Amino acid sequence: MSKPKVVLGVSGGIAAYKACELLRRLTESGHDVRVVPTDSALHFVGAATWSALSGNPVSTEVWESVHEVPHVRIGQAADLVVVAPATADMLAKAAHGLADDLLTNTLLTARCPVVFAPAMHTEMWEHPATQENVATLRRRGAVVIEPAVGRLTGVDTGKGRLPDPAEIFEVCKRILARGVTAPDLAGRHVVVSAGGTREPLDPVRYLGNRSSGKQGYALAKAAAARGARVTLVEANTGIPDPAGVDVVHVGTAVQLREAVLKAAADADAVVMAAAVADFRPAAYAPGKIKKTDDGGAPTIELVRNPDILAELAADRALPGQVVVGFAAETDDVLANGRAKLRRKGCDLLVVNEVGERKTFGSEENEAVVLASDGAETPVPYGPKEALAETVWDLVLPRLRSTI
Q1: Tens digit of pLDDT for each residue in 42-90?
Q2: Which end of the chain is more exposed for a tag (fewer CB within 10 A), N or C?
Q3: What pLDDT, in 10s, does the model give residues 192-206?
């Protein structure tokens, strides 16, 4: 079988050196990679490096090997085009269909999925012109990965850092595995919650749960690879931020509610995968609760936390917004799940059995997805990524037809 053909476009930013790591991951995983740098990119990493790492010739010119018509053939033959780093200039050229070098010509002729991994200073990323260009590219079906937050050139810090090459590689791998030409969530905004909330008792103790957040992260990564703009509201996971995702970090159920409702204001779908504490202490002790000499134990009064899933379903921010919940059950799993689906009023409910050694912290999951129309979709035991893909497959036909 022929190797998947990937075009790695490299534009002229200081993060170009990180693309070497992405190239290594692509080639070592069995992809045939052709690097197409811009002239500016070669100021940061030379053509010899790209050629040696890829095993393929490197050119920036449409005038070289003209008989092979490279400005057309490279894009036509590709299974995936990924531009990393994608500068503000490159995003602008791609959005407006300019074709003044080999890379921009390749982007115009490609009929495969296209991924842009932006890298630039925060001010450039946030400029209205760049945001309009990104919106245009996403509307056309391109996957534009959200840049990371961190150290930039010099002493500057902020949003605009190239996502970790390993994360970009995972996005590319997911897209190639799906084998589709256009990401089916392109132009959509989805919100995913992940992890487990913690309700403080005193400065050193809290009420919490065993949720690792891995299923929520799998959902966020799958949606990003399918072209969505993703907001991930995470609670106490300790997992690195995934590439292509805007991450909001929270701790308690009240904080998670505030963040989810804010993000859901313009979202096409909200998936509540986080394990939200049902109760919190009625009062917070400002000092550590001490043991008493009489051997007794303190009485902790609890109050109910807000029901975020029911609130989202009852008061949808947009007409046709799809709301998905999760139900972690320990007994009478399906019966409890069906009752919860009716009670919450959401469109889909992912029901799974949990326990000390089941699901929590694991890389695998098994579930049944219940729908408000009575449909039930079993998902056999397997990677949490597989369940994530099934959830989005079920969300897609329920999305409103206009974006």
Answers
A1: 999 999 999 999 999 887 766 565 545 456 778 888 899 999 999 999 9
A2: N
A3: 999 999 999 999 999
Q: Give which of 57, 62, 65 is closest to 7, Cα–Cα.
A: 57
Burial of 182 (0-12, 13-18, 19+ CB in 10 A): middle
From 178, 213, 245, give the residue that closes a domain: 178
Helices (H), 140-298: 165-178, 214-225, 253-263
Residue list, annotated binding site: 278, 288, 306-309, 326, 340, 344
Radius of gyration of the chain from its Cα atoms, rounded to whole angstroms: 24
Q: pLDDT tens-digit profile of 258-285?
A: 999 999 999 999 999 999 999 999 999 9
What is the b/e burial string over 208-217, where b = at least 16 CB atoms within 10 angstroms of the residue's CB?
bbebbbbbbb
Residue 256 pairs with which residues in a beta bridge?
Answer: none
Look at residue 137 and give its three-state secondary structure: helix
343 and 208 in a common domain: yes
**pLDDT at 32 > cutoff 60:** yes
Q: What does pTM read for this prediction?
A: 0.78
Q: Tell me the sheet residues that pair with 10.
A: 37
15/88 same-domain check: yes
Give the range of the structural domain holding residue 231, as residue numbers without chain letter: 189-398
Q: Are 62 and 71 in contact (CB under 8 A)?
A: yes
Q: Do 328 and 383 reside in the same domain of the chain?
A: yes
Give the whole-angstrom CA distance, residue 127 versus residue 145: 17
Do 358 and 291 share a structural domain? yes
Distance CA 262, CA 106 (A): 39
Length of the chain in terms of residues written: 403
- Identify the bridge partners of residue 246 per DSSP, sorted by sequence position: 231
Q: Which residues are identified as catalytic? A: 209
